[in-house]
């Protein structure tokens, strides 16, 4: 996790670095810091490394009085998600070496830092923080004999784990040296200087021309040039990519929080994701014409968190229309459990950020077994897209709030489109598929409707926001939605909650039900609705209060509160029924006065395993 920014050019570095950090706070916000090369003297070669850093958010750093003393045009900056060592000033980045000549910011984890610390201590170095990062500036110092590029490459050869680093030094005040392995880093280039960041939107205000650094590459960034080297310092050539993205869409546009804005953006995001890919009169178009779907006897959908829940929601779609057994797996499990995959396996990876470490590792594993890999990603040009055989993009737009909303609805939508594409390829284009297609095309309108009906939940949220435990139950696709609804609630309201397949309640969890325990039931499938109602009744008999989200006609006066949602094809219901649950979590967090967009302990991009 963690976000890093850098600037070298004719402008003052600090405002650019602060802006970049603010946009990268989704990657962590435990502490923030900046290092700048200042030249306060008349001697133009006399540069001094100045650092301001502290515990807390970027705004804390921005308001620090010492920031105004950082006047240089070369700087690096960091916003931290703590992995090694508590959030504190000492553990904040930038970190310096013992001589104070080299400053480093780092995103990633140095797995062999204990042995590197020992090596440095045996060589007379002292380490002052609890971080893994502090070994890096000290190793650079140890290997430095006049050539910073060589010192960085020698250091990289010692590091195990993941890193995106930026290095500045008084010894070479006209350069920022950057390097990466398994953590993202992009370079934006313009006539006014060169910009570095963990992601494109952080520097999109300044340029739309980017270089992408690959693993184990180093770059020397100067104010009017960018050079690239491999780890053995052979020079390599890279070409510039122009990125067409709208930096404005990262603003709140009058909404109180990014999460609320993103919930409301769902009809449009889903419409954009459908785009011209799907129509009733023509074959589905996904630009993946080279895949021969006839060769697959198994599908794996692999992802983490909310993206994995999108996979759970889509599994029955693939099984129904493509008739291929489909398994959904958590990426961190998949990567270590020797899954049975070969060239007849189709592996679908889902990731909003495209930077999730476990999902990237799962892609690499699947490729090593000759499976065909396709990723469903939101962030253009992100790492997963570069490792997968094929990528299709959701067009959700930037998702800033840590809790994922519109990315999820777009992921399930795109998985539905992919299933249609495959079913057409496999010759299963029957009237059931046509009616599914029609329902999918209606999603944006249905989403608009459900945004309105969901607002009624505010009253109910007010009544129960002080509770400590909540339970969600549903069957089939509704169970997948319950998992996601429960995760949303935990993440932003810090209320303990669990989701169960309705039929499982009586196999243990019902022991937890007591007077006034709230159970949220999701019912969108007429085939099983009576079953789940019975399960809810069993809970009501033991004192539970029930909140029901349904598109069925359920007449039961024992239910405390019902939110009626628009009817839709059962297999697409997760895209609609999640919306009230997003609002539910949102309202509860607001009543508890919590920071909805930046919940504690979380980060938007999970780039460590
Ligand atoms: C929850 C949430 C996370 C992410 C997970 C995977 O609201 O956002 O559970 O879904 O960390 O992230 P991506 O999709 O970026 O791979």
What does this structure look like?
By secondary structure, this protein is of the alpha/beta class. The protein is globular. Helix content is 33%, strand content 23%. It is built from 18 helices and 25 strands. The chain folds into three domains: 3-246, Glutamine Phosphoribosylpyrophosphate, subunit 1, domain 1 (4-Layer Sandwich), CATH 3.60.20.10; 251-441, Glucose-6-phosphate isomerase like protein, domain 1 (Rossmann fold), CATH 3.40.50.10490; 451-591, Rossmann fold (3-Layer(aba) Sandwich). Helix 12 (406-425) packs antiparallel against helix 13 (431-441). The termini are close together. Strands 3-2-4-1-10-9-11-15 form an eight-stranded antiparallel β-sheet. The chain has a seven-stranded antiparallel β-sheet with strand order 5-6-7-8-12-13-14. The longest helix has 20 residues, at 406-425. Bound molecules: fructose -6-phosphate.
Backbone CA Rg: 26 Å
Question: Largest beta sheet: what is the strand line-up?
Answer: 3-2-4-1-10-9-11-15
Look at the structure and give the CATH class of the largest domain: Alpha Beta
Q: What's the end-to-end separation, in Å? A: 10 Å
What is the total tally of β strands? 25
Secondary structural class? alpha/beta
Q: Give the uncertain stretches in residue-range form.
A: none
| List of distinct ligands in this structure | fructose -6-phosphate
In the CATH hierarchy, the third-tier topology of the largest domain is known as Glutamine Phosphoribosylpyrophosphate, subunit 1, domain 1
Which geometry do the CA atoms define? globular
In helices, the fraction of residues equals 25-40%
Which range does the strand content fall in? Answer: 15-25%
Total helices: the number is 18
The structural domain count equals 3
Q: Roughly what is the average pLDDT, rounded to an integer?
A: 94
The biggest beta sheet reads: 8 strands, antiparallel
CATH architecture annotation of the largest domain: 4-Layer Sandwich
CATH H-level name of the largest domain... which superfamily?
Answer: Aminohydrolase, N-terminal nucleophile (Ntn) domain
């Amino acid at each position: 996790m963690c976000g890093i920014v850098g600037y070298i050019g004719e402008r003052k570095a600090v405002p650019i670095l602060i802006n970049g950090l603010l946009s990268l706070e989704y990657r962590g916000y435990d502490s923030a810091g900046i290092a700048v090369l200042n030249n306060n003297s008349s001697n133009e070669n006399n540069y001094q490394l100045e650092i301001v850093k502290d515990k807390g958010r970027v705004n804390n750093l921005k308001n620090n009085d010492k920031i105004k003393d950082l006047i240089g045009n070369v700087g690096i900056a960091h916003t931290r998600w703590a992995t090694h060592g508590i959030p504190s000033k000492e553990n904040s980045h930038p970190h310096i070496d013992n001589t104070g000549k080299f400053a480093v910011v780092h995103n990633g984890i140095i797995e062999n830092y204990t042995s590197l610390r020992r090596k440095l201590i045996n060589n007379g170095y002292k380490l002052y923080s609890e971080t893994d990062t502090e070994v890096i500036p000290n190793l650079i110092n140890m290997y430095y004999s006049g050539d910073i590029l060589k010192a960085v490459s020698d250091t990289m050869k010692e590091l195990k784990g993941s890193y995106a680093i930026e290095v500045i030094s008084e010894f070479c005040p006209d350069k920022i040296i950057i390097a990466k392995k398994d953590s993202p880093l992009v370079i934006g280039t313009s006539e006014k200087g060169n910009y570095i960041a963990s992601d494109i939107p952080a520097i999109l205000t300044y340029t739309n021309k980017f270089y992408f650094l690959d693993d184990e590459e180093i770059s020397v960034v100067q104010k009017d040039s960018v050079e690239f080297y491999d780890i053995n310092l052979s020079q390599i050539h890279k070409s510039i990519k122009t990125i067409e993205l709208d930096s404005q869409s990262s603003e709140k546009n009058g909404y109180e929080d990014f999460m609320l804005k993103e919930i409301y953006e769902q009809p449009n995001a889903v419409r954009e994701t459908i785009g011209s890919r799907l129509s009733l009169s023509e074959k589905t178009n996904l630009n993946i014409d080279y895949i021969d779907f006839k060769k697959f006897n198994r599908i794996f959908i692999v992802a983490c968190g909310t993206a994995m829940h999108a996979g759970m929601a889509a599994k029955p779609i693939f099984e129904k229309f493509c008739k291929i057994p489909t398994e959904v797996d958590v990426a961190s499990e998949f990567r270590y459990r020797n899954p049975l995959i070969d060239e007849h396996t189709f592996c679908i990876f889902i990731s909003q950020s495209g930077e999730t470490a476990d999902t990237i590792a799962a892609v690499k594993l699947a490729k090593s077994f000759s499976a065909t890999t396709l990723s469903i990603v939101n962030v253009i040009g992100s790492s997963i897209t570069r490792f997968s055989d094929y990528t299709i993009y959701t067009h959700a737009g930037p998702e800033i709030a840590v809790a994922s909303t519109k990315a999820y609805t777009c992921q399930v939508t795109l998985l539905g489109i992919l299933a249609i594409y495959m079913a057409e390829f496999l010759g299963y284009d029957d009237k059931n598929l046509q009616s599914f297609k029609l329902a999918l095309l209606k999603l944006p309108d249905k989403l608009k409707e459900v945004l309105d009906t969901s607002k009624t939940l505010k009253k109910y949220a007010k009544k129960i926001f002080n509770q400590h435990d909540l339970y969600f139950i549903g069957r089939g696709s509704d169970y997948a939605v319950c998992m996601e609804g429960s995760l949303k609630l935990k993440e932003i309201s810090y209320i303990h909650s669990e989701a169960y397949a309705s039929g499982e309640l009586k196999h243990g969890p019902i022991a937890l039900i007591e007077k006034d325990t709230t159970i949220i039931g999701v019912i969108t499938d007429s085939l099983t609705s009576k079953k789940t109602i019975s399960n809810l009744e069993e809970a009501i008999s033991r004192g539970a209060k029930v909140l029901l989200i349904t598109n069925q006609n359920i007449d039961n006066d024992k239910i405390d509160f019902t939110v009626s949602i628009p009817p839709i094809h059962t297999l697409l219901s997760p895209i609609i029924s999640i919306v009230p649950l997003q609002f539910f979590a949102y309202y509860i967090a607001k009543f508890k006065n919590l920071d909805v967009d930046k919940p504690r302990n979380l980060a938007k991009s999970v780039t460590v395993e």
